[in-house]
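[job 4471] stage=fold_predict status=RUNNING
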Amino acid sequence: MRVDKYLWCVRYFKTRNQVTELCKKNHVTVNGQVAKPSKEVFPMDKVTFRRDQITYHLKVLDIPANRVGAKLVDLYRIDETPEENLQHLELLQLAKQHYRKTGVGRPTKKDRRDLDELTWENDTNDHID
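[job 4471] inference complete, writing structure tokens
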């Protein structure tokens, strides 16, 4: 199976085009050699790729017939990614949340209506006195 199709089948990427672009940038290696998208992978090969500032290390166990469900992915690969890399990913996600918390920023349409209603009530109460 082609390396781009394999990485797509084991659900590391949403599209094969994403894997192809990564291969063209020389971010995918098979057994230590830079791989083109059409490079064939076989059982017991080691695939390494860099995505989202993390270097993933996989060992191919078997070749799937086509894209598999998330629960079945472990039948086709062993994830040998070091624990430090995964912790680095968690830190990146926390950093993104720190800079912009959910719900902060431009108000939604409902928020704007609530604000308008609140300010309209305050304006009418001020004129009654």
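[job 4471] summary: The beta strands are 28-30, 33-34, 46-51, 54-60, 77-79.
[job 4471] exit 0
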